[in-house]
Automatic annotation (TrEMBL):
<keyword id="KW-0496">Mitochondrion</keyword>
<dbReference type="GO" id="GO:0005743">
    <property type="term" value="C:mitochondrial inner membrane"/>
</dbReference>
<keyword id="KW-0472">Membrane</keyword>
<keyword id="KW-0408">Iron</keyword>
<feature type="binding site">
    <location>
        <position position="152"/>
    </location>
    <ligand>
        <name>Fe cation 1</name>
    </ligand>
</feature>
<keyword id="KW-0679">Respiratory chain</keyword>
<keyword id="KW-0999">Mitochondrion inner membrane</keyword>
<keyword id="KW-0813">Transport</keyword>
<feature type="binding site">
    <location>
        <position position="191"/>
    </location>
    <ligand>
        <name>Fe cation 1</name>
    </ligand>
</feature>
<feature type="binding site">
    <location>
        <position position="191"/>
    </location>
    <ligand>
        <name>Fe cation 2</name>
    </ligand>
</feature>
<keyword id="KW-0249">Electron transport</keyword>
<keyword id="KW-0560">Oxidoreductase</keyword>
<keyword id="KW-1133">Transmembrane helix</keyword>
<feature type="binding site">
    <location>
        <position position="194"/>
    </location>
    <ligand>
        <name>Fe cation 1</name>
    </ligand>
</feature>
<dbReference type="GO" id="GO:0046872">
    <property type="term" value="F:metal ion binding"/>
</dbReference>
<feature type="binding site">
    <location>
        <position position="300"/>
    </location>
    <ligand>
        <name>Fe cation 2</name>
    </ligand>
</feature>
<dbReference type="Pfam" id="PF01786">
    <property type="entry name" value="AOX"/>
</dbReference>
Length: 349
């Protein structure tokens, strides 16, 4: 039996001699994230190497295998994802909520700084209008996956931190939270499902894992302290952050539809995505997957802008309440009545 197990990293001893002359290229691959200045000078890619990974297809480990218990077949999710129609997902558009006060400016400025750092880390360059086709702004499947994995590993933090702090506040004050906790934790769960889905397409290497660990550690503690000071600014910050996520996925969809990502033209979405989003037959490609993820990000954009508009201490969560007049327009869990810049307080309370 081969001593190299399914979960072990590739060792130098296991690499065929024909690859030894590519030691520099191999060293870059072992980092898990190709830096842009090296990626542009090395074009060789072994046929069996996965994107943003040094692990071969047949040796990639299973991130979420079935439970190792003979009487258990699978673990059901506590949250059922709402069903999106193709028409609803295609109606999602890029939008921006204008700043109205100093708190909004703080949130937007922080997002811009974070966006710059993330672009630098993932090799992404957002083109200005009219320069979308310049070579320096072009993205490959590999770079998109690098960005998606890094983005989603951070995006699951705010909902968990907000839900945790509101949970502790409810215990401490011995009062109800009026439905905020559930929505925030569900948002964190949804972002984690995005990450698990993209991990089915590419396994990050050592350097990517270190980057995620460092970024998550800094971001978690920073967001934790910020939420203690001003939950309103934090929700506005997440709303602006999700605006950027919608831009990112919209550009990826456009690249795919314009033939710039040929490896994804007919590639099927992972089974975990098909089950989670209940993707219908004939709509299970990577392009369809990106539409579903973008719709989720657009919903998070609406939810956090709406929560930021409310009184953080006394207002109920409008996404978990029952209204006296159900015929009046109000927020819901789906995207049927998606409001890109959020619902104002007088519309929902």
């Amino acid at each position: 039996m081969n001593s190299l197990t399914a979960t072990a990293p590739i060792r130098v001893a296991s690499v065929p001699k024909s690859y030894l002359h590519l030691s520099v290229r191999g060293a870059v691959a072992m980092t898990g994230l190709r830096t842009p200045w090296l990626a542009s000078t090395h074009h060789y890619k072994p046929a069996n190497t996965r994107l943003i990974s040094s692990t071969r297809q047949r040796e990639i480990k299973e991130f979420f295998p079935p439970p190792p218990h003979e009487h258990i077949r699978e673990v059901e999710s506590a949250w059922t994802h709402p069903v999106y129609t193709e028409e609803q997902m295609r109606q999602v558009t890029i939008a921006h909520r204008e700043t109205k006060n100093w708190a909004d400016w703080v949130a937007l400025g922080t997002v811009r700084v974070l966006r710059w750092a993330m672009d630098l880390a993932t090799g992404y360059r957002h083109p200005p209008p009219g320069k979308e086709n310049e070579a320096k702004f072009q993205m490959t499947e590999q770079r998109w996956l690098t960005r998606f994995v890094f983005l989603e590993s951070i995006a699951g933090v705010p909902g968990m931190v907000g839900g945790m702090l509101r949970h502790l506040r409810s215990l401490r004050r011995m009062k109800r939270d009026n439905g905020w906790i559930e929505t925030l934790l569900e948002e964190a769960f949804n972002e984690r499902m995005h990450l698990l889905t993209f991990l089915k397409l590419a396994e990050p290497g050592f350097f990517m894992r270190v980057m995620v660990l460092g970024a998550q550690g800094v971001f978690f503690n920073g967001f934790f302290l910020s939420y203690l000071i001003s939950p309103r600014i934090c929700h506005r910050f997440v709303g602006y952050l999700e605006e950027e996520a919608v831009i990112t996925y919209t550009r990826a969809i456009n690249d795919l539809e314009n033939g710039k990502l040929p490896d994804w033209n007919n590639k099927q979405a992972p089974e975990i995505a098909i089950q989670y989003w209940k993707m219908p037959e004939g709509q299970r490609t990577i392009k369809d997957l990106l539409y579903y993820v973008r719709a989720d990000e657009a919903k998070h954009r609406e939810v956090n802008h709406t929560l930021s508009n409310l009184n953080q201490k006394i207002d109920p969560n409008p996404y978990t309440v029952k209204y006296k007049d159900p015929t009046k327009a109000h927020p819901g869990k789906g995207i049927e009545k998606l409001k890109a810049t959020g619902w104002e307080r007088d519309e929902v309370v």
